[in-house]
Amino acid sequence: MESVSLRRLPALAILLLALGAPGPATGREGASVVQPDYAEPRVLFDFFFDHPAKIGPALYWLRGLINPLQDRPFNMDPEFMDIVVLIHGTELVTLARHNEQQYQQAVDRMRYYALLGVKFRVCGLALEDFGYTPEDLQPFVEVAPSAMTELAHWQQQGYALITPQVMERRVPLDEIR
């Protein structure tokens, strides 16, 4: 292994090492925990999946945003988080009232998030493609003209776009830890 010359280290790093400060990779410490000063989020989640069951894992992305911000030190109230979920893939069938029993867990989770103030929007064009009407959907859902107009609208309003990637785990965690 090649040794690092002191001439190659920045002056601040040399000073910190001389004062006894731990280096960035000493192997003795764990990762440092940061506490950013987050603003209340304005987020648009774009759901477009090739299988309806993928909505379940995608909803964990909402949890990953909301739950940490509700906890200390942020203590944000979900009512003040502006979150929109745009649905325009095969997961749209999970919102059909006649499919509620089949997708009960996902529907219950979406209903819970809707009570927290999350807006669930469905693409009107996709709704037609699936042969549904607004009356066929859960009452917490809003129908927008199209997913593309919604994507443009919310981003123009300053919302951050998050597009969940739902992967299939092919290797058990115990094998790769």
TrEMBL record:
Keywords: Signal
One of the Pfam families matching this protein, by short name: DsrE
Gene3D superfamilies for this protein: DsrEFH-like
SUPFAM superfamilies, per the entry: DsrEFH-like
Signal peptide: 1-27
Matching InterPro entries: DsrEFH-like (IPR027396), Sulphur_relay_DsrE/F-like (IPR003787)
Annotated protein name in UniProt: Uncharacterized protein
